[in-house]
Inverse folding.
């Protein structure tokens, strides 16, 4: 080294301190968030039955491939690219000659996945939009596809990061937008939605059994102080269910590992904030026009409101002669797969095929 060379920086950031033997908060999971610096950690967390922070384990991959049946030379549209888990399984099947068109409305995530899929760059075409605009994307991409995949909802990366506001486990801003460049946040939605509309959404979008009580508690809480943080919302839901934050935490410590009382509320509000059912309806409506002869569509849904829409659209498409065949029953994850990937527990796969 000569005197003119820049001095190497020796200062290293100390690891975040956490109590106990394992990190619990997202920000403490520094190893999982930098897998390239800590090889082996991702595999370790998976073996323990968890999903490493900042990663996403794709669901029902073998079943998706079986139903989508991608072949060399085909053009496949992945409407929910996410971390590119399914895309990475599909790409080798459509090469040589094939092309994967990927959509995700989360621009930051789309760019990370673009980098991850760099080896396939020549066979890849990515669009940072909602799949509600699938027909415009198709128009830019030659008009039609051999396969269409949608793995609905949010990714583990989005759920895990408290700053996104999807998590009821840690405090963060009440955002919940998948696309942070546009639209109203959960905070804005919760400031104005009527008690009746909220109760309706809790029932329809999340099967919340205490919908009326929860809606009343949320509206009551916001009258006292605007809800700005995820924990403000969690507190309001807990109060409707007879808990405070402290009594709920005590219950968790005693080993109550059931569904978090606020889980359904967070799901319903997230679906409203992102207009998820409207986007799904538009995709289901457009699909028969966008699929080539013999083309296949595969949809993974995560709650009854979504699954019902998919089931009805495919059934009507079959009756109307648009589709040649559709899945009879939804395909579910096996207990073993669910154990190593809890997000798989509520997943349902349905498919439909065009006449050849
Ligand atoms: N199959 C992916 C994971 C998908 S998770 C994988 O294996 O890695 C769902 C993704 O869909 C998220 O990244 C979310 O931002 C995106 N998404 C959800 N609804 C969307 C919509 N209407 N338009 C575009 N992207 C959407």
């Amino acid at each position: 080294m000569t005197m003119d060379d820049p001095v190497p920086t020796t200062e290293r950031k100390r690891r975040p301190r956490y109590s106990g033997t394992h990190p619990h908060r997202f920000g403490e999971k520094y190893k999982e968030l930098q897998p390239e610096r800590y090889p082996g950690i991702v595999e370790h967390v998976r073996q323990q039955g968890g999903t490493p922070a900042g990663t996403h384990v794709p669901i029902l991959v073998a079943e998706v491939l079986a139903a989508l049946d991608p072949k060399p030379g085909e053009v496949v549209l992945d409407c929910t690219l996410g971390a590119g888990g399914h895309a990475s399984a599909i790409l080798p099947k459509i090469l040589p000659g094939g092309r994967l068109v990927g959509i995700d409305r989360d621009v930051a995530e789309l760019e990370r996945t673009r980098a991850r899929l760099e080896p396939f760059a020549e066979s890849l075409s990515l669009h940072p939009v909602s799949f509600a605009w699938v027909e415009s994307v198709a128009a830019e991409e030659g008009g039609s596809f051999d396969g269409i995949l949608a793995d609905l909802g949010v990714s583990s990366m989005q759920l895990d990061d408290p700053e996104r506001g999807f998590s009821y486990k840690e405090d963060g801003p009440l955002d919940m937008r998948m696309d942070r460049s546009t639209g109203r946040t959960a905070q804005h939605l919760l400031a104005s939605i009527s008690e009746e509309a909220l109760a309706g959404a809790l029932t329809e979008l999340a099967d919340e059994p205490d919908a009326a009580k929860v809606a009343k508690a949320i509206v009551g809480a916001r009258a006292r102080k605007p809800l700005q943080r995820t924990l403000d919302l969690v507190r309001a839901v807990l109060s409707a269910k007879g808990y405070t934050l402290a009594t709920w935490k005590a219950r968790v410590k005693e080993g109550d590992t059931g569904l978090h009382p606020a889980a359904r509320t967070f799901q319903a509000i997230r679906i409203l904030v992102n207009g998820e059912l409207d986007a799904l309806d538009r995709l289901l409506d457009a699909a028969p026009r966008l699929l080539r002869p013999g083309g296949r569509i595969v949809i993974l849904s995560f709650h009854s409101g979504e699954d019902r829409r998919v089931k009805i659209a495919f059934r009507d498409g079959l009756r109307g002669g648009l589709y040649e065949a559709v899945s009879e029953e939804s395909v579910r994850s096996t207990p073993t797969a669910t154990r190593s990937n809890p997000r798989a527990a509520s997943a349902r796969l349905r498919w439909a095929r065009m006449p050849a």
